């Protein structure tokens, strides 16, 4: 029994096994941050890698993220203030008028899996709500998702509002119709075609 | 019996027998023409079971209705509504009551009445794909954001291409001035295309402004209501089993106003519906019934289309796959259900995931539309888009026009009659003769076959001499030929001045082509 077993259980998306192993490892006295970074987070990097190579299908990535999250829940109360220091705080939601949230949910899951503090505002989120929550949670990045081409303009509204109010939040946009060109044009800081890419982008944007 | 004299009586007997035998397999279509029976996946009892299963979903699982007006309408008309959770459950008798007022036809009205089309009589109704953010630049071949000038060109092209019946506004307009998101689409579209124009609006304000434009073109609101030539379309149902806020609001408003509107149901197997064709059919059918019930509650007898874009996600990446063969299979099954409900059917069928006019683009559009046609679908939202609804391409629109003409030819069928057996002619020419120089041939030679402008029939050598043009370049040439001439269908100067005076700061909206 080792941290490697936890890593393997995440990659095999076995939720129950992850929880059992994490509990056992904690009881064993293994360093909590070791379990977190080498067991859970490292495994999710592997999962993202396998997905990018076409070995894992989307549902497998999703299940692995769930397994990782279950393990994280066990660790949470045990993490000291220093260890609990998050990689960054993310606000995420689909933009106003858009209820299509599958991609957003996946990104949300993967962000959590990568150790970010994620506040998922759900669907149909307007600029005011994005900004109010970002201020309240002292967020690093606001992530906006759209599937409908007709709701994409609301992304620009939020990006503009951040500029106008002189706020420092970074912005990321995603969703089927969102391209790199579009992201650049509206002045968003980041963009990605898929969930693992979104995690990478968020890491880049929050790098201190 | 047609006048028919022939010395070969034996043949006549044979012909009658063939005719009798064929007629058993033939069904009479809406216009009274004889046509082939539609392709079916299910038996009558299976169709009924799918209907029953859909009722079970609506009654036991219910739908999440995020629009408050819709909640009130459902509550008033016998649904069990929880205002807190926004959950609505549909007792089966409520749905069955709505079914009683379904109507079998749907009309797309045009600015010019000669372009009005009604389903199912005028089937297949071929429509452009809509609301792509991008366009393949006709000069550079690179993808870029689309503008209102592009919409003007596309509108003019669709007006001229005979295979298209309805112009659903193909792209967004990047150059839209503040507050004119929808006007920058509808104005260039209506200005340059006299066929029925179809599209959606993102909010009530835009919808009302667009209707104001319609009234201005018609001369008055009263005149516009007589011939409402803006054909509204929305996706108010977000799978699984959810009514949204904005689109649902627009649908309710238009139904209350007695204006034309219909919705498309868009489940995506593996993502927003079960990862099986049967499960997605049943869920999608329940969603259609949910929307149809709302529609009939608001305005009993309101025309509807059983329109879908049911797909199976590519689970390797989660990619959207509207060009997949399963999209055609789903359309076939939904069409079978629509026939059970006796409402026109169709949807976004014939889309492609391809990014250029390559073989994939052709076989995805070709196979799926053929399947849908043979299953009896009426409406084909198929034209002009590449990359899974992401970008308009002029050549793709011209190629799809040709596919549309082929589908229409296939639908027209054989024109069965004794006369058309040509027994006189066959006897007259006899063995070893030629049919080249006959009146009969002269009479039919321009109409019997689709005469393609894109598909090549040249011998290889000649094709090589022409520089080996592929379908894309031949189609682009055709688009250029049409768009280089001034648009006769454009608004009159007088009307245009009136509109530009009423709506300040409008985009130019004129078709102009320089290639």
Could you name the key traits of this structure?
heterodimer; A: 208 residues; alpha/beta; Methyltransferase, Methionine Synthase (B12-binding Domains), Chain A, domain 1; 2 domains; five-stranded parallel β-sheet; B: 515 residues; TIM Barrel; eight-stranded parallel β-sheet; five-stranded mixed β-sheet; 23 strands; 43% helix; 13% strand; globular
Shape of chain A: globular
Q: How is the biggest beta sheet of chain A arranged? A: 5 strands, parallel
Q: Proportion of β residues of chain A?
A: 5-15%
Overall tally of domains of chain B:
1
CATH-level-2 architecture of chain B? Alpha-Beta Barrel
Mean pLDDT of chain B: 93
N-to-C SSE series of chain A?
A: HHHHEHEHEHEHEH
Summarize this entry quickly.
The complex is a heterodimer of chains A (208) and B (515). Helices cover 55% and strands 11% of the residues of chain A.
Q: Topology of this protein?
A:
The complex is a heterodimer of chains A (208) and B (515).
Chain A: H1 3-11, H2 15-27, H3 32-52, H4 58-75, E1 89-94, H5 102-113, E2 117-120, H6 127-136, E3 141-145, H7 153-164, E4 170-174, H8 180-186, E5 190-191, H9 195-206
Parallel strand pairs in A: 1-2, 1-3, 3-4, 4-5
Chain B: H1 9-25, E1 26-28, E2 34-36, H2 44-61, E3 63-65, H3 68-76, E4 80-82, E5 87-89, H4 92-99, E6 106-108, E7 117-119, E8 125-128, E9 134-136, E10 143-145, H5 148-160, E11 167-168, H6 183-192, E12 197-199, H7 204-218, H8 221-226, E13 230-234, E14 237-238, E15 242-243, H9 246-256, E16 261-265, E17 268-269, H10 277-298, E18 306-308, E19 311-312, H11 325-341, E20 345-347, H12 359-375, E21 379-383, E22 385-386, E23 391-392, H13 394-412, H14 423-429, H15 439-444, H16 460-465, H17 471-483, H18 493-502
Parallel strand pairs in B: 3-15, 8-21, 9-23, 11-12, 12-13, 13-16, 16-18, 17-19, 18-20, 20-21
Antiparallel strand pairs in B: 1-2, 3-5, 4-5, 6-7, 9-10, 14-15, 22-23
Helix pairs in contact in B: 2-10, 4-10, 5-6, 10-11, 11-12, 12-13, 13-17
């Amino acid at each position: 029994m080792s941290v490697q077993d936890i890593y393997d259980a995440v990659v095999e998306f076995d939720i129950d096994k992850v929880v059992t192993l994490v509990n056992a490892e904690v009881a064993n006295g293994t360093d909590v941050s070791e379990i977190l970074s080498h067991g859970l987070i490292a495994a999710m990097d592997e999962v993202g890698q396998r997905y990018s190579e076409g070995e894992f299908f989307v549902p497998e990535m999703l299940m692995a993220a769930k397994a990782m999250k279950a393990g994280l829940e066990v660790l949470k109360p045990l993490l000291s203030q220093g260890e609990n220091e998050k990689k960054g705080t993310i606000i995420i939601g689909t933009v106003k008028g858009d209820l299509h949230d599958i991609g957003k949910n996946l990104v949300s899951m993967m962000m959590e899996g990568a150790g970010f503090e994620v506040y998922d505002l759900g669907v149909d989120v307007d600029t005011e709500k994005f900004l109010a929550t970002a201020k309240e949670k002292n967020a690093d990045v606001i992530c906006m998702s759209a599937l409908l081409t007709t709701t994409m303009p609301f992304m620009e509204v939020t990006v503009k509002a951040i500029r106008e109010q002189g706020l420092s939040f970074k912005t990321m946009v995603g969703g089927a119709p969102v391209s790199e060109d579009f992201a650049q044009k509206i002045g968003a800081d980041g963009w990605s075609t898929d969930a693992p890419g979104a995690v990478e982008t968020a890491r880049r944007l929050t790098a201190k | 019996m047609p006048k028919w004299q022939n010395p070969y009586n034996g043949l006549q007997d044979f012909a009658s027998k063939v005719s009798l035998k064929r007629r058993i397999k033939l069904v009479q279509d809406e216009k009274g023409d004889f046509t082939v029976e539609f392709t079916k996946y299910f038996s009558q009892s299976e169709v009924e079971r799918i209907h029953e299963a859909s009722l079970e979903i609506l009654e036991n699982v219910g739908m999440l209705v995020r629009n408050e007006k819709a909640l009130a309408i459902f509550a008033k008309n016998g649904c069990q509504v929880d205002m807190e959770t926004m959950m609505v459950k549909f007792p089966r008798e409520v749905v069955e009551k709505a079914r009683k007022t379904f109507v079998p036809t749907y009309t797309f009205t045009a600015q010019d009445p000669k372009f009005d089309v009604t389903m199912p009589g005028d089937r297949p109704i071929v429509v452009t794909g809509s609301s792509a953010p991008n366009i393949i630049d006709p000069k550079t071949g690179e993808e870029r954001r689309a503008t209102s000038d592009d919409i003007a060109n596309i509108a003019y092209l669709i007006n001229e291409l005979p295979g298209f019946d309805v112009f659903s506004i193909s792209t967004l307009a990047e150059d839209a001035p503040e507050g004119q998101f929808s006007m920058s689409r509808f104005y260039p579209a209506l200005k340059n295309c006299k066929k029925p124009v179809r599209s959606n609006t993102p909010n009530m304000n835009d919808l009302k402004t667009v209707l104001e434009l319609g009234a201005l073109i018609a001369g008055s609101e009263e005149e516009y209501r007589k011939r409402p030539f803006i054909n509204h379309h929305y996706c108010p149902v977000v799978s699984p089993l959810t009514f949204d806020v904005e689109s649902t609001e627009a649908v309710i408003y238009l139904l209350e106003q007695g204006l034309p509107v219909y919705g498309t149901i868009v489940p995506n197997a593996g993502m927003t519906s079960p990862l099986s064709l049967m499960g997605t059919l049943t869920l999608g059918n329940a969603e259609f019934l949910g929307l149809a019930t709302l529609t009939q509650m608001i305005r009993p007898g309101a025309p509807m289309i059983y329109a879908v874009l049911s797909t199976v996600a590519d689970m390797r990446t989660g990619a959207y796959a509207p060009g997949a063969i399963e999209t055609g299979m789903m359309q076939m099954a939904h069409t079978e259900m629509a026939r059970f409900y006796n409402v026109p059917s169709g949807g976004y069928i014939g889309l492609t995931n391809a990014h250029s006019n390559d073989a994939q683009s052709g076989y995805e559009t070709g196979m799926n539309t053929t399947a849908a046609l043979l299953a009896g679908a009426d409406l084909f939202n198929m034209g002009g888009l590449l990359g899974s609804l992401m970008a308009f391409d002029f050549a793709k629109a011209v190629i799809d026009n040709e596919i549309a003409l082929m589908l229409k030819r296939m639908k027209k069928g054989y024109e069965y009659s004794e006369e058309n057996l040509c027994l006189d002619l066959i006897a007259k020419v006899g063995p070893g003769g030629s049919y080249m120089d006959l009146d009969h041939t002269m009479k039919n030679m321009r109409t019997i076959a689709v005469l393609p402008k894109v598909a090549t029939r040249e011998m290889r050598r000649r094709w090589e001499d022409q520089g080996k043009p592929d379908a894309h370049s031949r189609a682009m040439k055709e688009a250029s030929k049409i768009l280089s001439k001034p648009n006769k269908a454009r608004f009159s100067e007088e009307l245009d001045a009136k509109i530009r005076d009423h709506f300040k700061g409008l985009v130019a909206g004129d078709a102009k082509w320089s290639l």
